[in-house]
Design goal:
About 35% of the residues lie in helices and about 20% in strands. With about 500 residues, it is of the alpha/beta class. It folds into 2 domains: about 270 residues, 3-Layer(aba) Sandwich (Aldehyde Dehydrogenase, Chain A, domain 1), CATH 3.40.605; about 190 residues, Aldehyde Dehydrogenase, Chain A, domain 2 (3-Layer(aba) Sandwich). The strands form 6 sheets. Strands 14-15-16-13-12-18-19 form a 7-stranded mixed β-sheet, sandwiched between helices. It has a 6-stranded mixed β-sheet with strand order 9-8-7-10-11-21, sandwiched between helices. Strands 5-6-22 form a 3-stranded antiparallel β-sheet, with no helix packed on it. α8 links the parallel β10 and β11. The chain starts with 14 loop residues before the first strand and ends with a strand. It binds nicotinamide-adenine-dinucleotide. Nicotinamide-adenine-dinucleotide binds next to α7 and α8. Keywords: Oxidoreductase. GO terms for molecular function: succinate-semialdehyde dehydrogenase (NADP+) activity. Belongs to the aldehyde dehydrogenase family.
């Protein structure tokens, strides 16, 4: 089955700036590639600093009116946007599968997930409360109000082309900010379609501006935003290395930053766990999007007495996964994003084998399917000297580490600069309390592998970044608090 759009006009190749679809200022284009085949899906605008600047001009012009709208008016537009996203699920999912490769069922799931943030923040827009501070001095009234921070620059990765950008744009718009956005170079089409639907929903011109760019030009575009003191906030999801770069480079204009960065999630299976549930948890958490998620378990720790049994149960499930292009409706794992990703996965598996790991299933490229496929893999005998222990593999590889007791596994789990997600399975309620408290991570799955929700605060600790997306806390990053002290009231 070939992937085709019902509304072909949702495939945009130009930037959205000030409500108009425009080419890059030097009319440059770059190809967006389907990772299933390495064929070109479309050629899109290759924007640079001049386009980023034009986007900021438009966002600046639109800001006063958007800021001063009633929250209810902003909420209504967000609700219309949400309805249009849901209505166009099939086309958005198709675009996403074409440029990112994930199976259609997962793409549909991501549309629903991304849309849920828009609905959530439509509601939250009307609940931005301030405080009247209990009186401290006669004749004075002290209040704290929350205001939109200003122009927000959103920069996102390729692994969730819709959800990552929706969960930045939605709270920013709800708060009354205007936005300039640059999706990842590999996956601009879903994001541009999302912007088109926001325009269709009646979002005023210039409130959301989106530019596409290849890697180097995109870096130049972002550099323009970093240096521009009109841009008051950077919200970024991506690698820790780039997050640190943005933190350094935005220091000269002291922007507020939210950084959702890389992870190295531990997944702990204690010997009193429901092993069937733990296997299901690994399948859900590890193999979603072919293992290309920031919350994927990277290190699976299994207690000694259940290690062999767990490895056997997991291998059977992993060996049965169907690897195929998104155009095959039975696909469970699609291609990886590109050759670089495949090379990294192969390097990690080869390194593990050289250092003593055993491949139970998988462990090879699937060149017979296409250029970017890797077999879902289970490794036993993983240890701290392997790359799989200290670097995000970002692929369908489950390395199993053996441990003896709780103290040891907590120490091993926390022995990483990262702290995004962690998971553990046990039936002991006291252990749940202890381990939940001691694990250093922003998001913890307790007997649960699927943790994402628009109602929950998502974000990391340590080098996985700061700031929270979703939940009642998700607006805070887009607001500043103003204190007013009114005198002469006695
Ligand atoms: P990346 O950091 O290479 O790229 C992310 C974005 O930053 C892209 O838009 C890219 O064009 C841009 N970028 C790259 N270099 C830049 C520079 N020097 N200046 C300005 N912008 C630059 O990450 P990626 O490979 O696209 O995504 C994978 C990473 O994202 C993984 O580490 C993953 O864990 C992380 N991630 C984190 C979360 C989270 O919520 N914490 C979610 C998804 C992905």
């Amino acid at each position: 089955m070939a992937l085709k759009l019902t509304r072909s006009e949702l495939l945009h190749r130009q930037n959205l700036i000030g409500g108009k679809w425009v080419d890059a200022s030097d009319s440059a284009h770059y190809p967006v590639i389907n990772p299933a085949t390495d064929e070109i899906v479309a050629k899109v605008a290759n924007s640079g600093a001049a386009d980023a600047h034009a986007a900021t001009d438009a966002a600046e012009k639109a800001f006063p009116d958007w800021r001063d709208r009633l929250p209810r008016e902003r909420a209504e537009i967000l609700r219309r946007w949400h309805a249009l996203i849901v209505q166009n699920t099939e086309d958005l999912a198709t675009l996403m599968s074409m440029e990112q490769g994930k199976p259609l069922a997962e793409s549909r799931g991501e549309v629903a997930y991304g849309a849920s943030y828009v609905a959530w923040f439509a509601d939250e827009a009307t609940r931005i409360y301030g405080d009247i501070i209990p009186q401290q001095q006669r004749g004075k009234r002290m209040t704290a109000v929350k205001e939109p921070i200003g122009i927000v620059a959103a920069i996102t990765p390729w692994n969730f082309p819709l959800a990552m950008i929706a969960r930045k744009i939605a709270p920013a718009l709800a708060a009354g900010c205007t936005v300039v956005a640059k999706p990842a170079e590999d996956t601009p089409l879903t994001a541009l379609a999302l912007a088109a639907l926001a325009k269709e929903a009646g979002l005023p011109d210039g409130v959301l501006n989106m530019i596409a760019a290849a890697r180097d030009e995109g870096i130049a575009a972002v550099a323009d935003w970093l240096a521009d003191d009109r841009v008051r906030k950077i919200t970024f999801t991506g690698s820790t290395a780039v997050g640190k770069h943005l933190a350094r480079e935005s220091a000269s204009t002291l922007k507020k930053l939210s950084l959702e960065l890389g992870g190295n999630a531990p997944f702990i299976v204690f010997d009193d766990a429901d092993l069937e549930a733990a296997v299901a948890g690994v399948m859900a958490a590890k193999f979603r999007n072919g293992g290309q998620t920031c919350v994927c378990p990277n290190r699976i720790y299994v207690q000694s007495s259940v290690y062999e049994r767990f490895a056997d149960m997991l291998s059977k499930r992993v060996g049965a996964l169907k690897v195929a292009p998104a155009s095959d409706t039975s696909a469970q794992i699609g291609p990886m994003i590109n050759q670089r990703a495949i090379d990294k996965i192969a390097r990690h598996v080869d390194d593990a084998v050289e250092n003593g790991a055993t491949v139970l299933v998988g462990g090879r490229r699937l060149t017979e399917l296409g250029p970017n496929y890797y077999a879902p893999t289970v490794l036993t005998g993983a240890n701290v000297n392997m790359l799989v222990c200290c670097e995000e593999t970002f692929g369908p590889v489950a390395p199993l580490f053996r441990f003896e007791d709780e103290d040891e596994v907590i120490r091993l789990a926390n022995d990483t600069p990262f702290g995004l997600a962690a998971y553990f399975y046990t039936r002991d309620v006291r252990r749940i309390e202890r381990v939940g408290r001691r694990l250093e991570a922003g998001v913890i799955g307790v007997n649960e592998g699927a943790v994402a929700s628009e109602a929950a605060p998502f974000g990391g600790v340590k080098e996985s970044g700061y700031g929270r997306e979703g939940s009642k806390y998700g607006l805070d990053d887009y607001l500043s608090i103003k204190y007013l002290c009114q005198g002469g009231l006695d």
